[in-house]
Every structure is written in C-alpha cells, then in structure tokens.
Amino acid sequence: MPPEQHKKLKDLIEQEGRILLAISAIQKDQVSGPAEAACVFNVPQSTLHNRINGSKNQHKSCANGYKLSITEKDSIVQ
After folding, report:
1. How far is Cα 29 from Cα 76, in angstroms, rounded to an integer?
2. What pLDDT is attached to residue 71?
3. What is the pTM of this model?
4. 75: helix, coil or strand?
5. Angle 3-27/45-52 helices, nearest 10 degrees?
6. Among 59, 56, 25, which Cα is nearest to 39's?
7. CA angle, 9 as apex, 7 and 14 as ends, to 5°?
8. Where are the domains of the chain?
9. Does the N-terminal or the C-terminal CB of the chain have fewer CB atoms within 10 Å?
C-alpha cells in the first residue's frame, strides 16, 4: 500500500476510534451533548449525529454488499 493511502487509512481508523469515544462520553453524560463531544473529540458533528441515530460506518456497511452467494462462488470456482 502506498504511503499516502496508508496515512489516509490510519487517519480514518483514528477518527473512527474518536467517534466511538465521543458516543461513549455522550451515553455516560460526560459531555453535555453531541456538539460538545464533536468539539472535544475532534470529529465531524454531522457524522457523530448520524452515528448516534443508527447509521453505520461506511466500510462496515459496504462490506456485506460484496459477499457472494453460494451459487456465485460455485460458478466462479467452475
């Protein structure tokens, strides 16, 4: 993986961790709300809001869309 892509992936992983920490802080009433949590944990407020309302991480939601059915796997093998 080229260094630039590796850095982007690392940044996304770090941001995902900060988002999870922000959600945890909100649930434990350690911050007053999503706006404060977004500021404290340096994450986009819109992303945090969407996650709180049930949206999934893009990489996790797309992963299932790429799985093959048994029939598709068999036809590839043949």
Report:
1. 51
2. 78
3. 0.69
4. helix
5. 60
6. 25
7. 95
8. 3-77
9. C
